[in-house]
Amino acid sequence: MVFFLRYRELLPIKSTAERWLESITSFVTYVGFLGLLYVGASTLISPRSSNRALPIRMFITAFWVAEGFLALAWLLINNTALIKFWGFTTYMIMIPGLFVIISQNDKLSLRVRQQIPSSRLKRILAFLFFNGAAGGLIWAAIILSLTQVG
Q: Where are the domains of the chain?
């Protein structure tokens, strides 16, 4: 990413909007990867009975949405190169994440079962974001397929 953005400086003059968008893209990407490391580390040290998947899946989803909005902004100024970067970062995060998702335990602890909401829509969202391989695989499939469509 850094090489890509620095290489673009050798090209002809860019507009102010492009310069700001490059800065914002770099900042969001760096903060996103640092946040991913932080959330991953805090997930590793949390007890097995807690809902370990919720914070990391919510963070990855928020990071994916933020990068998607940046890709849309790049598309609006007729630059499609960073749309490919959005897809690349999504796959770079999700493919190794699939190995973690597959190895998760499907039996929920009492602590996690008490957090499951009673309404149907919230229960579906909880299925995608709470512990368990089945919900995690569906969550990953949704993100990867929406990235492929985008």
A: 16-149
